[in-house]
Every structure is written in structure tokens, then in C-alpha cells.
Design a protein that fits this description.
By secondary structure, this protein is of the alpha/beta class. It has eight helices and seven strands; from the N terminus they run βαβαβαβαβαβαααβ. Strands 3-2-1-4-5-6-7 form a seven-stranded parallel β-sheet, sandwiched between helices.
């Protein structure tokens, strides 16, 4: 399905693009021909991410950006347009998360996650939307959610609420901007092999084994599989898809019904 040069002439901004899922997405879009901007608050993440992309033959623009700051987000888009001439694709990947019981979650903890995930995704979407509308160009936005936005998951009230807001934003912007030629979709991963996420969310062998047993396909996803899903959604192959949430979790969210206690073969 993915042919060389599929995204030639396109310019993609990936927030949180220096590490983990963001880096995998930036690499995939770049190898398909897109010119890439990676954004992050961390200069070290940008440096390391740019080096990894150079190793893959991709010369990415790096922009230190705090997505919580609308002015900084506008500068990110402006620098991208100045470097490449335009911007077509936005991947809202920047996120913050940690496990915490709702009764123990501080107002600052709640605000930190909501500011990055929900507010940041809106500021970035607004900035790229305004640029596309002003330039009379079509484009595509993909936000990275999580499969628990519609199932719930203990210890994630801040992240689940913020990502559910992004899901609603995705569908609303899809309806509002379709006439402008801007498609807006999202990918909702389940358990994905990622050192950064593992450190915050599942840092013990017991936790990893428990989560694996919840996945009907019996394994965790790979960052490259998320990257492929994003690449599909921003490509011409998905030109009639907007407002869609693509779940990528090995069927994990399906295994929550009344008889979820019945083991299936992948659970041993």
C-alpha cells in the first residue's frame, strides 16, 4: 500500500517528535517523502531525534516548542512554513501521563496533563488550520489518543478526560473543516512497546504480564505499527476518511464484556 514517494511534496509537523511514538511517526512520514518538523520542549530530545532521523536519511527541522503556549505553537508553524514553504500535516503526539488514583491527584497534576494533551492539541490544530485556510490548501491532522478514552481505566482520569476531549475535538473539527479540505482523524493505541511510556505506566514484570493477558492478539503493539496507521490516515489512500478514530490495540478494548474472565488461547 505504501509506495516510495507517497508523501512527496507534503510537509508534516510532529509534536513530541524526538522520542518514542513521535519519532517513529516522523521517521515513517519522512521515509515516504514528507519533509519533517519535529517539536519538543526538550532540546536533548530534539537533538537525539534529529540525529536518528538523519541516520534514516531525513533532514528534519527541529523547533523547541511548549504546546501549552499558543504563541510558541504559532512560531512552530511559522518556522515550518519559512523553511519548507508550506505545511500540510499535523500529528498531535505531545502528551503527559502518569498513573494516579483520582482521590490523590493534585490540581496541578490534573492541569499539567490537560494543558499538554487537550489545550496543546487544540492550539496546534488551530495554528495549522489557520495556516491551511489562509493558504487555501488542503491538509490533514491526526491526534494520538488512547483506547481507554471510551472504556475508562483506573488511575488515568486526567489523561482519559483530556484525550476524550481531543476525540470530541477531532470529530468537531472534522465536521467544521471538511469544506476547507482539511481532514481530521485520530489513532487510539492500546499497549505499545515504548521505553518512555513503560517508565511511567507499566514498570514491573507483573504489570506487563497482566496487560498482555488483556490483549486478545496476545502481544503488545510496536511504535512502527502506530506510525503506519498515521501514515495511512494522512495519505491519499484515506482521502475520504475524516472524523474517524482508528483503534490500534490488538482487540484489547473488546475484551471487557461480562464474560471477560474466560481465558482465550492467547492468554494461556
Amino acid at each position: 500500500m505504501f509506495v516510495e514517494g507517497l508523501l512527496n511534496g507534503r510537509v508534516a509537523i510532529v509534536t513530541g517528535g524526538g522520542t518514542g511514538l513521535g519519532l517513529a511517526i516522523a521517521r515513517r512520514l519522512g521515509t515516504l517523502g514528507a519533509q519533517i518538523t519535529i517539536a519538543s520542549r526538550s532540546p536533548q530530545h530534539l537533538e537525539d531525534g534529529a540525529a536518528a532521523l538523519r541516520d534514516a536519511g531525513i533532514d528534519a527541522l527541529t523547533v523547541q516548542t511548549d504546546v501549552r503556549d499558543p504563541a510558541a505553537v504559532d512560531v512552530m508553524v511559522e518556522q515550518t512554513v519559512r523553511r519548507f514553504g508550506h505545511a500540510d500535516i499535523l500529528v498531535n503526539n505531545a502528551a503527559g501521563n502518569f498513573i494516579c488514583r483520582a482521590e490523590d491527584l493534585s490540581p496541578n497534576g490534573w492541569k499539567a496533563v490537560v494543558d499538554i494533551v487537550l489545550n496543546g492539541s487544540f492550539y496546534c490544530s488551530r495554528a495549522i488550520g489557520r495556516e491551511l485556510i489562509s493558504a487555501n490548501r488542503s491538509g490533514s491532522i491526526v491526534s494520538i489518543l488512547a483506547n481507554y478514552v471510551w472504556t475508562g481505566s483506573a488511575g488515568t482520569v486526567h489523561s482519559a478526560a483530556a484525550k476524550a476531549g481531543v476525540m470530541s475535538m477531532t470529530q468537531t473539527l472534522a465536521a467544521e473543516w471538511a469544506s476547507r479540505g482539511i481532514r481530521v482523524n485520530a489513532v487510539a493505541p492500546g499497549p505499545i512497546e515504548s521505553p518512555g511510556a513503560a517508565k511511567q505506566l507499566w514498570n514491573t514484570p507483573d504489570a506487563i504480564a497482566r496487560i498482555t493477558r488483556m490483549v486478545p492478539l496476545g502481544r503488545w503493539g510496536k511504535p512502527e505499527e502506530v506510525a503506519d496507521a498515521v501514515a495511512f490516515l494522512v495519505s491519499p489512500h484515506a482521502s475520504y476518511i475524516t472524523g474517524e478514530i482508528l483503534t490500534l490495540d490488538g482487540g484489547a478494548w473488546l475484551a471487557r464484556g461480562t464474560f471477560g474472565f474466560l481465558d482465550h488461547p492467547s492468554r494461556g
